[in-house]
Write a structure and sequence with these properties.
The protein is α/β, with parallel strands linked by helices. The protein has helices spanning about 10-20, 45-50, 80-85, 100-110, and strands spanning about 1-5, 30-35, 55-60, 70-75, 95, 120-125, 130-134. A seven-stranded mixed beta sheet has the order 4-3-2-1-5-6-7, with helices on both faces. It starts with a strand and ends with a strand.
Length: about 130
């Protein structure tokens, strides 16, 4: 399971690409949040993976008030995770995005049965970005 908020999609995209190439038969899901529907990066590429049955894509917008967006609205939360966590105890999760998204997602994933050691999060430390176990 990959979780991306805003520009967190950049590192997630690279990891997602690696996972799809290395493990083509595994079920891969992406929860992707942006402020507005026109801010989703790489969306056509992601939708193509979805069309090919390689990716379960779930998008949500947090600040888009336009009527043109027909998808989900609101921050990624428990309901989103419940929809994509098919086997929590054996799911490996990668979370990248704003600090509140990262910490809230890690806590929610743990509460839903994902082992803490199976949750990788992005954190800023000493002026650089790094991926950590939760």
């Amino acid at each position: 399971l990959f979780v991306a908020g805003g520009t967190g999609i950049a590192p997630v995209r690279a990891m997602l690409d690696h996972a799809l190439r290395r493990h083509p038969s595994r079920k891969v899901s992406l929860l992707y949040s942006a402020r507005r529907s026109d801010e989703f990066a790489f969306v056509e590429e992601l939708r193509e993976h979805e069309r090919r049955g390689r990716l379960e894509l779930h998008q949500t917008v947090t600040r888009d008030e336009s009527t043109s967006w027909g998808g989900k609205r609101g921050r990624i939360g428990r309901d989103h995770f419940e929809a994509v966590l098919h086997e929590p105890a054996s799911t490996l999760c990668f979370v990248c995005g704003p600090p509140s998204l990262v910490s809230d997602s890690a806590a929610t994933l743990e509460s839903l049965g994902v082992p803490a050691g199976s949750i990788r999060t992005e954190r800023w430390a000493n002026g650089s970005q790094a991926l950590h176990d939760s």
